[in-house]
Amino acid sequence: PFTATHSSGVAQCSMLLAEMVGMSESEVKLMEIAGLLHDLGKLVVPNSILEKPAGLTHAEMAVMKQHTYYTFSILTTVAGLQMIAEWGAYHHERLDGKGYPFKREAHELNLGARIMAVSDIFTALAEDRPYRKGMEAERIKTILEDLASRGIQDPRIVKLLLENIEEVRRVVTERQEQARRYYQTEVEKSE
To answer: How far apart are CA 64 and CA 44, in angstroms?
Structure first.
């Protein structure tokens, strides 16, 4: 349930940012799909790690970090999904080349990948996690500004998000609540 709700939030955030930067209607739709699928590789991560209510050990973190590689690997097996695969799987890449799994540098990260990375970080900070409550807007702003100023995330995308943080948070939260209700009523009842 947590990953489904998180992915819904990332999809909504990435769509909003894609619209704000002027991406085409079809690109915005592809951003939504990439956001929904960005954590697909977590299918290989044990639930004991995904749902752990505390910090992860180094070994557990190494397993968790593999999810982006598997997202890319799974999505690139389907013809026509190369862009979605990159946008989705590159959400832990960094402009300075120190991200994972591929260690891509700024010149290798297109606009969609940059939007997805910022969307994933924002959503993760704003939402309740198994190990902590969601952060307040000022704390999120401080973290994102720091990532942008250190050349880790795209300053233009971060600035755009922060200029619209209340609207983005409201819409992302609404989408996540819809996903949570759907999961509880449709998925859990069929189990």
So the answer is: 9
- Name the DSSP class of 100: S
As beta bridge partners, residue 105 has 96
| Closest to 10 (Cα-Cα) out of 41, 33, 44 | 33
Q: 62 with 54: CB under 8 angstroms? A: no
- This prediction's pTM: 0.93
Average pLDDT for 6-30: 97
Cα separation of 103 and 107, whole Å? 12
Residue 191: per-residue pLDDT: 63
Report the run of H or E that residue 117 belongs to, with start and end: helix 111-126
Amino acid 49 reads I
Which of these is catalytic: 29, 42, 98, 159? 42
**CB 143: neighbour CB atoms within 10 A?**
16
Q: How confident is the model at residue 18 (pLDDT cuts 50, 70, 90)?
A: very high
9 Rama sector, left if φ>0, alpha if ψ -120 to 50, beta otherwise? alpha
Residue 133 annotated in active site: no
Cβ neighbours of 86 (radius 10 Å): 22
Q: 31-75: per-residue pLDDT in tens?
A: 999 999 999 999 999 999 988 888 899 999 999 999 999 999 999
Residue type, 81: L
